[in-house]
């Protein structure tokens, strides 16, 4: 029995690409072009070129204009098309950003933005968004958000891990406005209302510990992190430090060159710091360019949320014998992305390289093992600031340095 037109077949199509923005970035692909009339599939022909795909999109556009009962927003369609095209790669780290999203990224990189102050990452295995840590003195920290919290909902809307960019955009807004987060912590959900405000981002914090031990915590590797590190380290030297702890716990990464520059401060000129390979297996070896300015024993503190550029720094210091690693095995994000801004202000972040430690150890989905594994007591995970005397990882680092 023939089906009537009221039984329309399916909502047909994924808009997958707009050539005028990223034509130069496209490689060969194949899809199928359907010819539709009154809700029935009349036939198809294989589309093997951009021209064929443009015809397909044009045909869909005509169908939408003739039959779709809602409003059509061209900008939303274009952005959705490109995002769908890029996300179909299946790589959680290769992403298209709208102009507004790129503006926000650049704002954060430059040191301040309006929001609640969170570092987040996507767990690709569980497809959830995990808090790496709240920014110091931010609304998120004041509201009690902790490292390891899983973000389930924003303002009542549920989000998965692959939607981390939407979440980042959602939690930002005008100063004084509120956002509600539903988080999962230790198997229990909790709802928190947070007021947005301007958040200042400092990459480095320092202090002097017992036995003339300098302590430098790196929150991320954005901005001019390495210059800030150098300045703060020289200030510690004036306070007569003899040993150094570099804390990269809960550091989700940032700009690769910043991590390499910091590794350069502690390694001999000519030492291998990083090995990368591109899609064609072309290998690039990055070496230290300068004489080291750090000539004291080093311990690096790290944990399961130390990722990406953090792992580059830890791996370089460990393999060159310049530091003892204390804590937990790192996250295991051993791929590098290249971020390009397009002419209309939007952006494309592409995974371009996999990287390895100087001893050619794989990092991606493996992580870096500490020299000395130390657990942080589970009851301390619920504390936004851990007292020094209860921080078992920090105390082990101090103990190690006392023996050097």
Given helix and strand content, the structural type is: alpha+beta
Number of domains: 3
Instruction: State the total count of DSSP E strands.
Output: 21
Global shape: globular
Low-pLDDT parts are 1-46
Q: What separation lies between the terminal Cα atoms?
A: 86 Å
Determine the fraction of residues in helical runs and give it as a percent range.
Answer: 25-40%
Largest sheet: 6 strands, antiparallel
Tell me the strand percentage band.
25-35%
**Tally of contiguous helical segments:** 10
Give a brief rundown of this model.
The chain is an alpha+beta fold and 404 residues long. The chain has 10 helices and 21 strands.
Question: Could you describe the 3D structure shown?
Answer:
This protein is an alpha+beta fold. Helices cover 26% and strands 29% of the residues. The protein has ten helices and 21 strands. The strands form five sheets. Strands 5, 6, 7, 8, 9 and 10 form a six-stranded antiparallel beta sheet that branches. A six-stranded mixed beta sheet has the order 12-13-14-17-18-21, sandwiched between helices. Helix 7 (225-238) packs parallel to helix 8 (256-266) and helix 8 packs parallel to helix 9. The longest helix has 18 residues, at 50-67. The chain is globular and about 80 Å long.
């Amino acid at each position: 029995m023939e089906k009537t037109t009221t039984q329309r077949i399916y909502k047909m199509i994924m808009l997958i690409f707009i050539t005028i923005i990223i034509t130069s970035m496209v490689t060969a692909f194949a899809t199928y072009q359907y010819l539709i009339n009154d809700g029935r599939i009349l036939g198809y022909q294989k589309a093997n070129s951009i021209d064929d795909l443009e015809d397909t999109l044009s045909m869909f556009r005509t169908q939408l204009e003739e039959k779709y009962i809602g409003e059509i927003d061209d900008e939303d369609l274009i952005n959705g098309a490109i995002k769908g095209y890029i996300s179909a790669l299946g790589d959680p780290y290769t992403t298209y950003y709208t102009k507004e999203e790129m503006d926000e990224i650049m704002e954060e990189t430059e040191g301040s933005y309006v929001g609640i102050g969170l570092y987040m990452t996507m767990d690709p295995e569980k497809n959830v968004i995990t808090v790496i840590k709240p920014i110091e003195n931010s609304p998120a920290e004041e509201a009690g958000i902790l490292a390891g919290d899983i973000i389930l909902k924003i303002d009542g809307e549920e989000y998965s891990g692959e939607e981390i960019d939407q979440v980042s955009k959602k939690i930002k807004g005008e100063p004084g406005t509120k956002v509600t987060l539903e988080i999962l912590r230790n198997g229990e959900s909790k709802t928190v209302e947070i007021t947005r405000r301007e958040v200042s981002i400092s990459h480095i914090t320092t202090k002097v510990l017992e036995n003339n031990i300098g302590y430098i915590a790196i929150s991320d590797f954005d901005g001019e992190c390495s210059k800030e590190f150098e300045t703060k380290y020289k200030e510690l030297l004036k306070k007569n430090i003899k040993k150094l702890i570099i804390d990269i716990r809960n550091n989700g990464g940032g700009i690769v060159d910043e991590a390499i520059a910091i590794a350069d401060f502690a390694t001999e000129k000519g030492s291998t710091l990083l090995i990368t390979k591109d899609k064609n297996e072309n290998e690039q070896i990055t070496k230290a360019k300068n004489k080291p300015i750090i000539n004291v024993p080093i311990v690096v503190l790290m944990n399961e949320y130390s990722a990406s550029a953090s792992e580059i720094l830890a791996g370089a210091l460990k393999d060159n014998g310049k530091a003892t690693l204390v804590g937990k095995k790192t996250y295991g994000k051993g791929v590098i992305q290249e971020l390009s801004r397009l002419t209309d202000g939007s952006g494309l972040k592409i995974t371009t390289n996999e990287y390895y430690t100087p001893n050619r150890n794989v990092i991606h989905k493996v992580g870096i093992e500490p020299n000395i594994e130390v657990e942080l007591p589970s009851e301390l995970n619920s504390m936004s600031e851990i007292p020094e005397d209860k921080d078992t990882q920090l105390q082990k680092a101090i103990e190690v340095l006392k023996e050097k």
